[in-house]
Amino acid sequence: MARHDGTVEAKSEYPSTTVSDLLEADNNGWLNYLPSALTTLRTVTLLSTSLLCAAVAWLGGTLLFYILLSRFFSPAVAHHERSLYFDYTKADAIANAHFLPESQYNRAYNSGAAASQTRFLSSRQRFDVWLELATPEAHGQEGDEVFQVVGRLLTADGSVAGESSRPVLVKQRYWLSRTVRLLFNAPFVMLGLWDERREVRVPLFSSYQEQPDKPFVIFQATLQARAGGGRLPQLYEAKVHLRLRLGIVSRLLFLTRPGNWVTWILIAASLLSIFGGIAGSIAFALLWFVTRGAVSSAAARPTGNCGLPEDEPDLNGDLSDDDDPASPKGIQEAVLDFEDAAIGQENVTRRETGRVTSSANNESPPFWSDAQKPHSSGSYSQSYAGAKKLS
Predict the structure, then answer these.
(1) Per-residue pLDDT tens over the stretch 123-181
(2) 216 within 8 A of 155, measured Cβ to Cβ
(3) Other residues' Cβ atoms within 10 Å of the Cβ of residue 260
(4) E-strand spans in 216-351?
(5) Are 340 and 2 spatial neighbours (Cβ–Cβ below 8 Å)?
(6) Are 125 and 242 in contact (CB under 8 A)?
(7) CATH class of 79-245
(8) Please, is 204 exposed, middle or buried when counting C-beta atoms within 10 Å of its C-beta (0-12, 13-18, 19+)?
(9) Domain ranges for the chain
(10) Which residues, in sequence order, are CB contacts of 201 under 8 Å at separation 6+?
């Protein structure tokens, strides 16, 4: 490219690319939306992360609420079992089973607490009670298989909170059936691994509701012989069972209730999720707010020349009269540029020709005088005059 001083500027094989070139090449104007897109992406990322941390905190709170709900509103054990040991020294065989742990029972007794304040189950809790008795095939003569079972629910001071009585009949098997069973199990009988027994289940209380003023802590079972010469039954083993009646929600909480160690682990994890999630949510929300304020301040600050450097042209602005190529000044500048280009090109040609001639004759290249410059050429003067007429 020719300059005004007549020299030629060398062109680079790889032209440099500036911000203006990129903006000029962006015909559709997508680069103008790049800052806005980055701002939107930053906002979406920060707010999404803040919401995610809030969701983690909410899940931790939900887990903690569930743990507390399952611990306080569902029982640790829904089925209780106690062994009974009857006293045959009296006319009626009696056995007691303490459902309240002995340590709690002794503590309540020594402190003088009222019987209504010493309880094993929650107030108005419903439950079932039954006995399991293991008796021989026949515990006496004919007619001795019938006996009476009386069950009582006692408070801490011995008051009767509930009572129930059931007759029991141990069914006899036919002698041939007993003989075949005995022959078949003879090896196990000889080794002491099997004996003739009958499992009898005696239901006593069904859907009994715990009374608020008379909470039971002791179960008492009494065996009574049949009137008119009956005998008390012989027992291999006797147990009392208590099963709670749970609603749908209580049963669901009971079935999904974690153990003690798992409960502590879940509590620690839920607390960590709550505090960590809240802290993270607040931190990302504040970061978004701070960056949003910084972007708003930068947008409100005047940048001048559309934020481009001072030496860069305003591509989006309107052209002035001086910059318009069709204006007189624009035409004059075009003529001057054309003149400089022609002078430079002719000088280069003559210098190259002079170098070739001097090389052939071993002479130094000629020097041009002011009279020999192309300004005096007729063709160039005519072009310059025609350009002046246009201007």
Answers:
(1) 889 999 999 999 887 654 455 578 899 999 998 888 899 999 999 887 777 777 778 88
(2) yes
(3) 9
(4) 218-225, 237-244
(5) yes
(6) no
(7) mainly beta
(8) buried
(9) 34-75+247-316, 79-245, 318-390
(10) 130, 131, 132, 133
